[in-house]
Specification:
By secondary structure, this protein is of the alpha+beta class. It is built from five helices and four strands, in the order ββαββαααα. A four-stranded antiparallel β-sheet has the order 2-1-3-4. α2 packs across α3 and α3 packs antiparallel against α4. The relative contact order is 0.14.
């Protein structure tokens, strides 16, 4: 076996052959994404570059704030990579709380205004849904990746009973390293 690895990103972009030291250095310098994949002659599948000792994909001590920040600010429409169960459910909880608060604020505001101004709540909630639809889809795709499934399975959510399928997927534990990276909730080594 050679000591060089073929390097690619999850979106399929190839970066040629590199040594393990070069891969780790480029990831640390930000020239390669943290979820880069490697392959070596004799291997049956691509592996996460983090198995070489490269810094793992950063994980947080998930809570509502960190999950919402990750999904809605840092990875707004990132379809590659993985989303842990904790990130998924904390984001869903945070979204529900946010919708409740926006609805409450809109309702209280309308109660103190003229009867002609009853569009505040629907407009606020509509903007919230519009802002949140893309990151919600991206989160679901990353959650599918976490359990080892292609993101295309998300299309089942648009079929009758498809939400039940996504609920089952969301409840499954994270798998081991797969073609979308290492476990997102794995402890840093």
């Amino acid at each position: 076996m050679s000591t060089t690895y073929h390097v690619a990103t999850p979106d399929g972009t190839r970066h040629g052959q590199m040594s393990a030291e070069d891969i780790c250095a480029k990831i640390t310098a930000g020239e390669l994404p943290a979820d880069a994949l490697i392959w070596q002659e004799g291997w049956t599948d691509w592996r996460p570059a983090s198995t070489l000792g490269a810094p793992p994909v950063p994980t947080a001590d998930w809570g509502i704030y960190t999950a919402m920040e990750s999904v809605y600010l840092r990875r707004y429409f990132t379809l590659h990579g993985r989303a842990s169960r904790a990130e998924y459910w904390y984001c869903k909880l945070g979204s529900a709380v946010l919708v409740f608060l926006v609805g409450l604020i809109g309702t209280l505001t309308e109660a103190h205004l003229s009867e002609d101004v009853t569009v505040i709540t629907p407009v606020l909630l509509g903007l919230l849904v519009l802002f949140g639809i893309l990151p919600t889809i991206a989160l679901a795709v990353r959650r599918l990746h976490d359990v080892g499934m292609s993101g295309w399975w998300y299309l089942l959510a648009f079929l009758p009973m498809g939400d039940l399928f996504m609920l089952v997927i969301a409840l499954l534990p994270s798998g081991g390293p797969n073609r979308w990276g290492t476990r997102p909730d794995a402890p840093a080594e």
